[in-house]
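Late entry, octanoyl-coenzyme A complex.
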Amino acid sequence: MAYQNILVTREENIGIVTFNRPKVLNALNHTTMEELSAAVDELAADSGVRCIILTGAGERAFVAGADINELHALASAGAAAEFAAWGQSILFKIENLSKPVIAAINGYALGGGCELSMACDIRIAADSAKLGQPEIDLGILPGYGGTQRLPRLVGEGRAKWLILSGERISAQEALRIGLVDFVVPAAELLNAAKDLARIIANKAPLAVAWAKRSINVGTETDLVTACAYEASQFGLVCSTEDRVEGTSAFLEKRPAHFKGK
Ligand code: CO8
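Prediction complete; structure with ligand written out below:
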């Protein structure tokens, strides 16, 4: 598919999606969301891709939010609710993808941009990045899962602080409260994301996919049920050729060659 608002590239076994509307700080309009959804499908179906990075073009923004022109033009409560639910379904697709997704936050990650990063598995931020949920300043509230994922990540009080005040925080503050996982110098961001993606991409793909699923399912349920689910996934992963390869390689003191089988 030809994309207008994003770039989709591949490096070794890593897929990179770059939001590419730098003039509007990579704001997410309807077309960009449609393209993001298509790119995720494309990279999911590509067996050569084992890990995905999302980032923004230019030095200023990862994604500065949903496109406010489109929010301004929303005609009815029903249309707005539907628009939000549709966007949420794309973020769920990222969250539930069998391949890990890393957000490389190179600048502003505001509103829908912060929400998008929270649907990713791991967030690495440039030291110059700014994050926040400033929807309150527009007379609205987060609609791409921010009221739900933010408290799960940083706790209810901090989520209420950020969502009710609209305050934008530094990458260091985001690290302190657990909104991002790593902060690196801006010039090193993409390489840091690629280094991590490469490490993950060379692990056993089914073990990676099912470990991700076990964490996702488990963190949304009680501990006993979650551990039972983990045991079922452990059983499943032990039926793979990669389990035989990984354990044999260790015992034979050689590198493992995983096939995703
Ligand atoms: N939408 C559309 N255009 C934008 C956006 C945006 N979110 N953000 C920036 N732009 C545009 C600006 O209008 C400006 O355009 P122009 O050059 O034509 O005037 C250009 O990008 C550059 O921006 P600024 O001149 O404002 O740059 P500054 O450095 O002065 O400020 C900021 C940078 C602080 C990032 C500022 O642009 C800003 O506050 N942007 C808006 C951030 C925001 O409020 N984001 C949340 C949007 S709401 C949202 O994401 C809801 C998600 C859920 C929706 C669910 C239903 C669809």
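The radius of gyration is 19 Å. Will revisit in the morning.
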